[in-house]
Design goal:
3-stranded parallel β-sheet; binds flavin-adenine dinucleotide; 5-stranded antiparallel β-sheet; 25% helix; alpha+beta; 13 helices
Length: 361
Protein backbone atom coordinates (compact mmCIF):
# COMPACT_ATOMS: atom_id res chain seq x y z
CA UNK A 1 0.00 0.00 0.00
CA UNK A 2 1.14 3.56 -0.67
CA UNK A 3 1.75 6.00 2.18
CA UNK A 4 -0.92 8.53 3.03
CA UNK A 5 -1.68 11.18 5.67
CA UNK A 6 -4.37 10.34 8.20
CA UNK A 7 -6.40 13.14 9.74
CA UNK A 8 -8.97 12.27 12.41
CA UNK A 9 -11.43 15.17 12.10
CA UNK A 10 -12.88 16.66 15.29
CA UNK A 11 -15.87 18.30 13.67
CA UNK A 12 -17.56 18.65 10.29
CA UNK A 13 -15.92 22.00 9.57
CA UNK A 14 -12.43 20.59 10.13
CA UNK A 15 -13.23 17.58 7.92
CA UNK A 16 -14.52 19.71 5.07
CA UNK A 17 -11.65 22.21 5.32
CA UNK A 18 -9.16 19.33 4.96
CA UNK A 19 -10.50 18.46 1.51
CA UNK A 20 -9.12 20.14 -1.61
CA UNK A 21 -11.14 23.12 -2.82
CA UNK A 22 -11.74 21.39 -6.09
CA UNK A 23 -14.28 21.60 -8.89
CA UNK A 24 -17.28 19.28 -8.91
CA UNK A 25 -15.54 16.74 -11.07
CA UNK A 26 -11.96 15.63 -10.80
CA UNK A 27 -10.54 13.83 -13.90
CA UNK A 28 -10.59 10.53 -12.03
CA UNK A 29 -11.83 9.39 -8.61
CA UNK A 30 -8.68 7.28 -8.48
CA UNK A 31 -6.38 10.26 -8.41
CA UNK A 32 -8.39 12.41 -6.00
CA UNK A 33 -5.82 13.77 -3.54
CA UNK A 34 -8.05 13.32 -0.46
CA UNK A 35 -10.99 11.18 0.65
CA UNK A 36 -13.24 11.04 3.68
CA UNK A 37 -13.20 7.73 5.49
CA UNK A 38 -15.84 6.48 7.95
CA UNK A 39 -16.00 2.74 8.74
CA UNK A 40 -13.27 2.06 6.17
CA UNK A 41 -14.83 -1.24 5.07
CA UNK A 42 -14.82 -0.24 1.42
CA UNK A 43 -12.21 2.49 1.06
CA UNK A 44 -9.43 0.52 2.79
CA UNK A 45 -10.05 -2.49 0.50
CA UNK A 46 -9.85 -0.21 -2.54
CA UNK A 47 -6.63 1.38 -1.29
CA UNK A 48 -5.07 -2.04 -0.62
CA UNK A 49 -5.85 -3.02 -4.21
CA UNK A 50 -4.51 0.34 -5.47
CA UNK A 51 -7.88 1.05 -7.05
CA UNK A 52 -8.09 4.30 -5.09
CA UNK A 53 -4.96 6.21 -4.09
CA UNK A 54 -5.74 9.24 -1.90
CA UNK A 55 -2.72 10.95 -0.40
CA UNK A 56 -4.84 12.18 2.52
CA UNK A 57 -7.56 10.30 4.38
CA UNK A 58 -9.86 12.42 6.55
CA UNK A 59 -11.54 10.31 9.21
CA UNK A 60 -15.15 11.37 9.75
CA UNK A 61 -16.14 8.17 11.56
CA UNK A 62 -16.02 9.77 15.01
CA UNK A 63 -17.92 12.95 14.17
CA UNK A 64 -21.01 13.42 16.33
CA UNK A 65 -23.34 12.56 13.44
CA UNK A 66 -24.54 9.19 14.73
CA UNK A 67 -28.00 10.22 15.90
CA UNK A 68 -31.05 8.26 14.76
CA UNK A 69 -34.19 10.16 15.64
CA UNK A 70 -37.78 11.01 14.81
CA UNK A 71 -38.46 14.33 13.11
CA UNK A 72 -41.56 16.45 13.10
CA UNK A 73 -44.36 15.13 10.91
CA UNK A 74 -43.61 11.43 11.39
CA UNK A 75 -40.35 11.02 9.47
CA UNK A 76 -36.86 10.11 10.68
CA UNK A 77 -33.30 11.42 10.48
CA UNK A 78 -30.44 8.92 10.21
CA UNK A 79 -27.00 10.29 11.05
CA UNK A 80 -24.21 9.74 8.51
CA UNK A 81 -21.89 8.13 11.05
CA UNK A 82 -24.55 5.87 12.61
CA UNK A 83 -23.44 2.29 12.01
CA UNK A 84 -25.50 0.15 9.64
CA UNK A 85 -26.15 -2.35 12.46
CA UNK A 86 -27.42 0.35 14.84
CA UNK A 87 -29.68 1.74 12.10
CA UNK A 88 -31.19 -1.64 11.23
CA UNK A 89 -31.88 -2.51 14.88
CA UNK A 90 -33.24 0.87 15.92
CA UNK A 91 -36.79 0.39 17.31
CA UNK A 92 -38.17 3.38 15.40
CA UNK A 93 -36.64 2.22 12.11
CA UNK A 94 -38.16 -1.22 12.71
CA UNK A 95 -41.54 0.33 13.43
CA UNK A 96 -41.69 2.94 10.66
CA UNK A 97 -39.36 1.60 7.93
CA UNK A 98 -39.00 -2.17 8.44
CA UNK A 99 -38.09 -2.57 4.75
CA UNK A 100 -34.99 -0.46 5.34
CA UNK A 101 -33.97 -2.63 8.29
CA UNK A 102 -34.51 -5.75 6.15
CA UNK A 103 -32.39 -4.32 3.32
CA UNK A 104 -29.48 -3.42 5.61
CA UNK A 105 -29.58 -6.82 7.29
CA UNK A 106 -29.50 -8.54 3.89
CA UNK A 107 -26.10 -6.95 3.23
CA UNK A 108 -22.55 -7.95 4.23
CA UNK A 109 -21.96 -9.68 7.60
CA UNK A 110 -22.68 -8.67 11.22
CA UNK A 111 -19.04 -7.64 11.71
CA UNK A 112 -19.04 -5.43 8.61
CA UNK A 113 -22.42 -3.91 9.50
CA UNK A 114 -21.01 -3.01 12.93
CA UNK A 115 -18.25 -0.96 11.26
CA UNK A 116 -20.03 0.33 8.15
CA UNK A 117 -21.72 3.72 8.40
CA UNK A 118 -24.78 5.08 6.66
CA UNK A 119 -22.77 7.74 4.78
CA UNK A 120 -20.19 5.19 3.66
CA UNK A 121 -22.83 2.72 2.56
CA UNK A 122 -24.28 5.30 0.15
CA UNK A 123 -20.87 5.96 -1.42
CA UNK A 124 -19.46 2.41 -1.59
CA UNK A 125 -18.13 1.67 -5.05
CA UNK A 126 -19.08 -0.96 -7.61
CA UNK A 127 -18.05 -4.61 -7.20
CA UNK A 128 -17.37 -5.08 -10.94
CA UNK A 129 -14.37 -7.49 -11.14
CA UNK A 130 -12.67 -5.37 -13.78
CA UNK A 131 -12.86 -2.26 -11.57
CA UNK A 132 -11.06 -4.11 -8.76
CA UNK A 133 -8.35 -5.60 -11.00
CA UNK A 134 -5.77 -2.90 -11.77
CA UNK A 135 -4.11 -5.19 -14.34
CA UNK A 136 -7.05 -4.83 -16.75
CA UNK A 137 -8.66 -1.79 -18.41
CA UNK A 138 -11.70 -0.17 -16.80
CA UNK A 139 -13.30 3.15 -17.73
CA UNK A 140 -14.59 3.64 -14.19
CA UNK A 141 -11.10 3.30 -12.71
CA UNK A 142 -9.07 4.78 -15.60
CA UNK A 143 -11.33 6.80 -17.93
CA UNK A 144 -10.73 6.10 -21.60
CA UNK A 145 -9.16 2.66 -21.19
CA UNK A 146 -12.21 0.56 -22.17
CA UNK A 147 -14.81 -1.77 -20.67
CA UNK A 148 -13.96 -5.47 -21.00
CA UNK A 149 -17.01 -6.31 -18.88
CA UNK A 150 -19.38 -5.62 -21.76
CA UNK A 151 -18.30 -8.78 -23.58
CA UNK A 152 -16.77 -10.58 -20.61
CA UNK A 153 -17.88 -11.41 -17.06
CA UNK A 154 -21.08 -9.43 -16.72
CA UNK A 155 -23.06 -11.84 -14.49
CA UNK A 156 -23.23 -9.33 -11.60
CA UNK A 157 -23.55 -6.30 -13.84
CA UNK A 158 -26.18 -3.97 -15.24
CA UNK A 159 -29.08 -4.54 -17.61
CA UNK A 160 -30.57 -1.03 -17.40
CA UNK A 161 -29.18 2.47 -17.91
CA UNK A 162 -25.81 1.28 -19.22
CA UNK A 163 -23.59 3.20 -21.63
CA UNK A 164 -20.91 2.15 -24.11
CA UNK A 165 -18.42 3.12 -21.42
CA UNK A 166 -19.66 1.17 -18.39
CA UNK A 167 -22.09 -1.52 -17.23
CA UNK A 168 -21.23 -1.43 -13.51
CA UNK A 169 -23.91 -1.71 -10.83
CA UNK A 170 -24.25 0.08 -7.52
CA UNK A 171 -23.87 -2.72 -4.98
CA UNK A 172 -25.68 -1.32 -1.91
CA UNK A 173 -28.75 -3.01 -0.43
CA UNK A 174 -29.53 -0.10 1.88
CA UNK A 175 -29.69 2.31 -1.07
CA UNK A 176 -32.39 0.25 -2.80
CA UNK A 177 -34.71 0.69 0.19
CA UNK A 178 -33.77 4.38 0.53
CA UNK A 179 -34.65 4.92 -3.13
CA UNK A 180 -38.09 3.34 -2.66
CA UNK A 181 -38.64 5.41 0.50
CA UNK A 182 -37.69 8.63 -1.34
CA UNK A 183 -35.05 9.56 1.21
CA UNK A 184 -33.31 12.93 1.11
CA UNK A 185 -29.55 13.24 1.66
CA UNK A 186 -28.31 16.31 3.50
CA UNK A 187 -24.74 17.42 2.70
CA UNK A 188 -22.41 20.22 3.81
CA UNK A 189 -19.47 21.83 1.97
CA UNK A 190 -17.47 25.08 2.22
CA UNK A 191 -20.20 26.83 0.21
CA UNK A 192 -23.07 25.76 2.46
CA UNK A 193 -25.59 22.95 2.88
CA UNK A 194 -27.99 21.33 0.44
CA UNK A 195 -30.58 18.55 0.27
CA UNK A 196 -30.38 15.97 -2.50
CA UNK A 197 -33.39 13.83 -3.43
CA UNK A 198 -32.22 10.22 -3.36
CA UNK A 199 -33.02 9.73 -7.05
CA UNK A 200 -30.53 12.51 -7.85
CA UNK A 201 -27.63 11.28 -5.68
CA UNK A 202 -26.32 8.40 -7.82
CA UNK A 203 -25.91 8.88 -11.55
CA UNK A 204 -25.92 6.72 -14.65
CA UNK A 205 -22.51 6.11 -16.23
CA UNK A 206 -23.05 7.96 -19.53
CA UNK A 207 -19.75 9.31 -20.83
CA UNK A 208 -18.30 9.80 -17.32
CA UNK A 209 -18.43 6.36 -15.70
CA UNK A 210 -15.77 7.27 -13.13
CA UNK A 211 -18.31 9.56 -11.44
CA UNK A 212 -20.66 7.57 -9.25
CA UNK A 213 -22.63 10.44 -7.74
CA UNK A 214 -23.53 14.09 -8.11
CA UNK A 215 -21.53 15.03 -4.99
CA UNK A 216 -18.54 17.35 -5.11
CA UNK A 217 -15.47 15.81 -3.47
CA UNK A 218 -15.60 18.24 -0.55
CA UNK A 219 -19.28 17.59 0.25
CA UNK A 220 -19.75 15.71 3.52
CA UNK A 221 -22.91 13.69 4.05
CA UNK A 222 -24.40 14.84 7.37
CA UNK A 223 -27.61 12.80 7.56
CA UNK A 224 -30.35 11.06 5.60
CA UNK A 225 -33.97 12.07 6.03
CA UNK A 226 -36.89 9.71 5.58
CA UNK A 227 -40.29 11.28 4.92
CA UNK A 228 -43.39 10.01 6.77
CA UNK A 229 -45.11 7.22 4.86
CA UNK A 230 -47.81 4.57 5.18
CA UNK A 231 -45.81 1.63 3.88
CA UNK A 232 -44.71 -0.09 7.11
CA UNK A 233 -47.23 -2.97 7.04
CA UNK A 234 -46.94 -3.65 3.32
CA UNK A 235 -43.30 -3.45 2.38
CA UNK A 236 -40.69 -6.07 1.51
CA UNK A 237 -37.02 -6.47 0.60
CA UNK A 238 -36.24 -9.44 -1.61
CA UNK A 239 -32.58 -10.21 -2.34
CA UNK A 240 -31.53 -12.89 -4.84
CA UNK A 241 -27.85 -13.89 -4.90
CA UNK A 242 -25.51 -16.72 -5.77
CA UNK A 243 -24.92 -17.68 -2.10
CA UNK A 244 -27.47 -17.56 0.70
CA UNK A 245 -25.48 -15.01 2.67
CA UNK A 246 -22.47 -12.73 2.47
CA UNK A 247 -22.91 -12.05 -1.25
CA UNK A 248 -23.96 -9.05 -3.29
CA UNK A 249 -27.34 -9.11 -5.03
CA UNK A 250 -27.83 -10.45 -8.52
CA UNK A 251 -31.19 -8.72 -8.28
CA UNK A 252 -32.89 -7.17 -5.27
CA UNK A 253 -36.25 -5.44 -4.95
CA UNK A 254 -37.60 -2.99 -2.39
CA UNK A 255 -41.38 -2.98 -2.76
CA UNK A 256 -43.86 -0.89 -0.79
CA UNK A 257 -47.64 -0.61 -1.03
CA UNK A 258 -50.17 1.64 0.62
CA UNK A 259 -53.47 -0.32 0.48
CA UNK A 260 -56.98 0.99 1.18
CA UNK A 261 -59.57 -0.83 3.34
CA UNK A 262 -60.67 -2.92 0.35
CA UNK A 263 -57.07 -3.96 -0.38
CA UNK A 264 -56.73 -1.77 -3.47
CA UNK A 265 -53.46 0.02 -4.11
CA UNK A 266 -53.33 3.72 -3.26
CA UNK A 267 -49.60 4.13 -3.85
CA UNK A 268 -46.81 1.75 -4.89
CA UNK A 269 -43.04 2.07 -4.83
CA UNK A 270 -40.61 -0.30 -6.51
CA UNK A 271 -36.82 0.06 -6.50
CA UNK A 272 -34.57 -2.59 -8.04
CA UNK A 273 -30.94 -3.25 -7.07
CA UNK A 274 -28.20 -5.15 -8.88
CA UNK A 275 -29.45 -4.03 -12.29
CA UNK A 276 -28.04 -0.54 -12.84
CA UNK A 277 -25.46 2.08 -11.85
CA UNK A 278 -28.03 3.30 -9.31
CA UNK A 279 -31.12 1.83 -7.62
CA UNK A 280 -33.58 1.65 -10.52
CA UNK A 281 -37.03 3.22 -10.24
CA UNK A 282 -39.64 4.07 -12.83
CA UNK A 283 -42.51 6.24 -11.57
CA UNK A 284 -44.56 5.23 -14.65
CA UNK A 285 -44.40 1.57 -13.57
CA UNK A 286 -45.49 2.53 -10.06
CA UNK A 287 -48.41 4.65 -11.25
CA UNK A 288 -49.65 1.69 -13.35
CA UNK A 289 -50.58 0.11 -10.00
CA UNK A 290 -52.47 3.05 -8.47
CA UNK A 291 -56.18 2.31 -7.94
CA UNK A 292 -55.81 -1.36 -8.93
CA UNK A 293 -56.30 -4.58 -7.03
CA UNK A 294 -53.07 -5.99 -5.68
CA UNK A 295 -52.91 -8.99 -8.04
CA UNK A 296 -50.04 -10.84 -9.66
CA UNK A 297 -51.42 -9.71 -13.03
CA UNK A 298 -51.11 -6.03 -12.07
CA UNK A 299 -47.67 -6.60 -10.55
CA UNK A 300 -46.54 -8.33 -13.75
CA UNK A 301 -47.59 -5.35 -15.86
CA UNK A 302 -45.66 -2.98 -13.58
CA UNK A 303 -42.59 -5.23 -13.78
CA UNK A 304 -42.81 -5.33 -17.57
CA UNK A 305 -42.96 -1.52 -17.70
CA UNK A 306 -40.08 -1.09 -15.27
CA UNK A 307 -37.85 -3.41 -17.27
CA UNK A 308 -38.60 -1.76 -20.62
CA UNK A 309 -35.27 -1.23 -22.33
CA UNK A 310 -33.41 -3.87 -20.27
CA UNK A 311 -30.51 -5.39 -22.20
CA UNK A 312 -28.09 -8.15 -21.29
CA UNK A 313 -24.29 -8.17 -21.61
CA UNK A 314 -21.38 -10.57 -21.38
CA UNK A 315 -20.07 -13.27 -23.68
CA UNK A 316 -23.33 -14.93 -24.86
CA UNK A 317 -23.93 -18.33 -23.25
CA UNK A 318 -20.78 -18.09 -21.15
CA UNK A 319 -20.48 -17.88 -17.35
CA UNK A 320 -20.49 -14.09 -17.51
CA UNK A 321 -23.68 -13.75 -19.58
CA UNK A 322 -26.24 -11.72 -17.62
CA UNK A 323 -29.21 -11.96 -20.01
CA UNK A 324 -30.96 -14.23 -17.49
CA UNK A 325 -31.24 -11.23 -15.14
CA UNK A 326 -34.06 -9.68 -17.20
CA UNK A 327 -36.45 -12.56 -16.45
CA UNK A 328 -35.03 -12.93 -12.93
CA UNK A 329 -35.75 -9.26 -12.24
CA UNK A 330 -39.27 -9.53 -13.66
CA UNK A 331 -40.10 -12.44 -11.40
CA UNK A 332 -38.40 -10.82 -8.39
CA UNK A 333 -40.48 -7.65 -8.78
CA UNK A 334 -43.73 -9.64 -8.89
CA UNK A 335 -42.67 -11.76 -5.90
CA UNK A 336 -41.54 -8.74 -3.82
CA UNK A 337 -44.86 -6.98 -4.46
CA UNK A 338 -46.73 -10.13 -3.42
CA UNK A 339 -44.61 -10.29 -0.26
CA UNK A 340 -45.37 -6.64 0.49
CA UNK A 341 -49.10 -7.21 -0.06
CA UNK A 342 -49.07 -10.24 2.24
CA UNK A 343 -46.98 -8.60 5.01
CA UNK A 344 -43.97 -10.86 4.39
CA UNK A 345 -41.06 -8.51 4.98
CA UNK A 346 -38.01 -10.46 3.79
CA UNK A 347 -36.79 -13.89 2.82
CA UNK A 348 -33.44 -13.64 4.60
CA UNK A 349 -34.55 -14.82 8.04
CA UNK A 350 -32.88 -11.87 9.80
CA UNK A 351 -36.27 -10.44 10.63
CA UNK A 352 -38.82 -13.13 11.47
CA UNK A 353 -42.23 -13.61 9.87
CA UNK A 354 -44.91 -11.52 11.58
CA UNK A 355 -42.27 -9.04 12.64
CA UNK A 356 -44.24 -5.97 11.62
CA UNK A 357 -47.41 -7.24 13.28
CA UNK A 358 -45.49 -7.67 16.57
CA UNK A 359 -44.84 -3.96 16.85
CA UNK A 360 -47.30 -1.98 18.94
CA UNK A 361 -49.10 0.61 16.79
C1 LIG B 1 -16.94 -8.71 2.31
C2 LIG B 1 -17.95 -7.60 2.13
C3 LIG B 1 -19.25 -7.92 1.80
C4 LIG B 1 -20.18 -6.90 1.63
N1 LIG B 1 -21.48 -7.22 1.28
C5 LIG B 1 -22.38 -6.20 1.09
C6 LIG B 1 -23.71 -6.47 0.68
O1 LIG B 1 -24.11 -7.63 0.49
N2 LIG B 1 -24.56 -5.42 0.52
C7 LIG B 1 -24.15 -4.13 0.73
O2 LIG B 1 -24.96 -3.22 0.57
N3 LIG B 1 -22.90 -3.84 1.09
C8 LIG B 1 -22.01 -4.84 1.27
N4 LIG B 1 -20.73 -4.55 1.62
C9 LIG B 1 -20.30 -3.16 1.58
C10 LIG B 1 -20.45 -2.42 2.88
O3 LIG B 1 -21.82 -2.22 3.14
C11 LIG B 1 -19.74 -1.10 2.69
O4 LIG B 1 -18.36 -1.37 2.65
C12 LIG B 1 -20.02 -0.10 3.79
O5 LIG B 1 -21.39 0.21 3.87
C13 LIG B 1 -19.22 1.17 3.60
O6 LIG B 1 -19.35 1.97 4.75
P1 LIG B 1 -18.07 2.55 5.48
O7 LIG B 1 -18.56 3.45 6.55
O8 LIG B 1 -17.15 1.45 5.90
O9 LIG B 1 -17.45 3.37 4.28
P2 LIG B 1 -15.93 3.76 3.96
O10 LIG B 1 -15.22 2.58 3.40
O11 LIG B 1 -15.32 4.46 5.13
O12 LIG B 1 -16.19 4.84 2.83
C14 LIG B 1 -16.81 4.51 1.61
C15 LIG B 1 -16.91 5.77 0.76
O13 LIG B 1 -17.79 6.70 1.38
C16 LIG B 1 -17.16 7.96 1.55
N5 LIG B 1 -17.73 8.51 2.79
C17 LIG B 1 -17.89 7.87 3.97
N6 LIG B 1 -18.59 8.63 4.82
C18 LIG B 1 -18.87 9.79 4.17
C19 LIG B 1 -19.58 10.98 4.52
N7 LIG B 1 -20.17 11.13 5.70
N8 LIG B 1 -19.68 11.95 3.60
C20 LIG B 1 -19.09 11.83 2.37
N9 LIG B 1 -18.41 10.73 2.00
C21 LIG B 1 -18.31 9.73 2.89
C22 LIG B 1 -15.68 7.66 1.60
O14 LIG B 1 -14.91 8.77 1.16
C23 LIG B 1 -15.58 6.50 0.62
O15 LIG B 1 -15.51 7.00 -0.69
C24 LIG B 1 -19.80 -5.56 1.82
C25 LIG B 1 -18.47 -5.24 2.19
C26 LIG B 1 -17.55 -6.26 2.33
C27 LIG B 1 -16.14 -5.89 2.72
Amino acid sequence: MRGFDYLPARDAEEAIAAMPQSPLHHPSERTLPAKFIAGGTNLIDLMKESVMRPRRVVDVGRLPLAGIEAIEGGGMRLGATARNAATAKHPLVLERYPMLAAAILAGASPQIRNMATNGGNLLQRTRCHYFYDVAVPCNKREPGTGCPARDGLARQLAILGTSDHCIATHPSDMCVALAALEAVVHVRSPVGERDIAFADLHRLPGGEPDRDTTLACDELIMHIELPAQDFARHSAYLKLRDRASYAFALVSVAAALDLDEAGRIRTARIAVGGVAHKPWRDPAAESLLAGREATAQAFGEAAQRLLQGARGHGAPGGPGDNRFKIELARRAIVRALEMARDGELTQTGELGAGHVQDIEP
